[in-house]
């Protein structure tokens, strides 16, 4: 049903594992429909276990209001003490699903934490939800982890029509090759099915490059989180031998600068950005040569430069140590790309048509039918 011209509404959003506010910023800036009947999303409550992350979220999303941001272990939360919501978002911890982790999947310490999103759906019964994790989730536990998670999300509460998709964020205006599984679910009784929004920058000549993101609008001197990392002389010399787009293993390095690491071929180790392409994936780590390195200057990027590659605005201030800020930026969803997805959610709810594509994660036919995939 198309509701153009009808009175809009604002969804009350709750967030588990909220991070610094990538999803929340996207939600606050997402809108659909005319101004006199706009559909939007408002912050209601959020929770995360990390103190610095919660401080960042409070300052940027809710003006420093402590009452709606709960810094607590999700396993100790009392849902009854949180406000009523009709929309839920949760980027459950990815440590056990990431390709750079120990690959414990659903059997690890972090893997089972998705279940608290399921419990929140059971308790709050929101009209829709958005869940997020790394692309490595597809292969965790031989593929069974993703099947289990999708089945439980589909069956949670009153039941949900779910639409999982592996988003390539460089195809959605983000200057970074960041690939994430995002699952959108609409409560089954609403008879709504989310369609994957069509990419906006799918063609390579339309993708935003890291040079454009960092240099087209120079970073103002007054912004926060822009301190440079002090590089050792050895790192400087090593970077001077590495060309843009290359790393420590595919460059012609003198013997004294080669890494004595057996079995390690992670392509991001001392990898310099290619200025004419989107960045490679910004991660929450930074040790062992994984800071992300400038294409021209022999140095690691500043946290503000990393935040630009994640599409955080320059006035978004991160709190905590330099290492904590780096982790917060790397763990977040890119706000601008996420905004496009949430606007598609709002258009689905409002009955407003938009350009879409088919879901792309391959599932066994029987499983797809069971989960009512779009």
Description of the molecule:
- It is a single chain.
- The chain is of the alpha/beta class and 374 residues long.
- The chain has a domain at 10-204 and 334-371: Vaccinia Virus protein VP39 (Rossmann fold).
- The chain is built from ten helices and ten strands.
- Strands 1, 2, 3, 4, 5, 6, 7 and 8 form an eight-stranded mixed sheet that branches. The chain has a two-stranded antiparallel sheet with strand order 9-10.
- A hairpin with a 6-residue loop joins β2 (31-32) and β3.
- α1 (22-29) packs across α9 (335-350).
- The protein is globular.
Which tags fit this structure?
eight-stranded mixed sheet; 10 strands; 374 residues; 10 helices; disordered N terminus; globular; Rossmann fold; two-stranded antiparallel sheet; alpha/beta
Report the portion of residues in β strands. 5-15%
Count of alpha/pi helices: 10
Order of helices and strands: EHEEHEEHEHEEEHHHHHEH
State the distance separating the first and last CA atoms. 18 Å
Radius of gyration: 21 Å
Assign the structural class, choosing from mainly alpha, mainly beta, alpha/beta, alpha+beta, or little secondary structure.
Answer: alpha/beta
Name the CATH class of the domain at 10-204 and 334-371: Alpha Beta
Mean pLDDT: 87
How many beta strands in the DSSP annotation?
A: 10
* Shape by Cα distribution: globular
CATH superfamily grouping of the domain at 10-204 and 334-371: Vaccinia Virus protein VP39
CATH architecture of the domain at 10-204 and 334-371: 3-Layer(aba) Sandwich
Q: Helical content, roughly?
A: 25-40%
Quaternary state of this entry equals single chain
